[in-house]
């Protein structure tokens, strides 16, 4: 039930559970994500990744969060590429939800919470996101949260041996 969905800043202690989700969901996420090195799927690899994310947080370029349902980590939501300059003030939103918690409204609710954080805490004016052209569930989450598609980035990411196009999404915050 999505009313129990929360987000918070990622913590080093989240590494082991994130690794468990990523190992279990390897096949489920393969259509949407690039190849990852083997250590990505280990607690140690996740710990190193979390350390890098938190360094970006301290530098003001990223807000790395986890998605919680009933106080259990079920995914991540991250604002990357934060540009806080007065004439830019934007960030790019990304997220994933573990397969055991999908289709329960958590993704949509987490994105809504992240948008509120982007506006109220980070002071951003614009939210951006991208999806593969085939990722209809993620596109529905973005649409329900007020995003509009605005273009296609051709050959944007390398996946399963070929360059793929991405659908670009935007939302002006505060609207």
Structural overview:
It is a single chain. The chain is α+β, with helices and mostly antiparallel strands and 175 residues long. It contains five helices and seven strands, in the order βαααβββαβαββ. It has a single domain (2-172), classed as Gcn5-related N-acetyltransferase (GNAT) (Aminopeptidase, 3-Layer(aba) Sandwich). It is 31% helix and 35% strand. A seven-stranded mixed β-sheet has the order 1-2-3-4-5-7-6, with helices on both faces. It is globular. The mean pLDDT is 94.
| SS class | alpha+beta
Number of domains: 1
Number of strands: 7
Mean pLDDT: 94
| CATH architecture identity | 3-Layer(aba) Sandwich
* Through-space gap between termini: 27 Å
What's the order of the H and E elements? EHHHEEEHEHEE
Spatially, the strands of the biggest sheet line up as 1-2-3-4-5-7-6
CATH superfamily: Gcn5-related N-acetyltransferase (GNAT)
Percentage of residues in DSSP E strands? 35-45%
The level-1 CATH class: Alpha Beta
Q: With helices defined by DSSP (H or I, 4 residues minimum), what is the helix count?
A: 5
Helix-residue proportion: 25-40%
Q: Uncertain regions: pLDDT < 50 for 5+ in a row?
A: none
- Describe the biggest sheet? 7 strands, mixed
CATH topology: Aminopeptidase
The backbone outline, from C-alpha atoms, is: globular
Report the radius of gyration as a whole number of Å: 16 Å
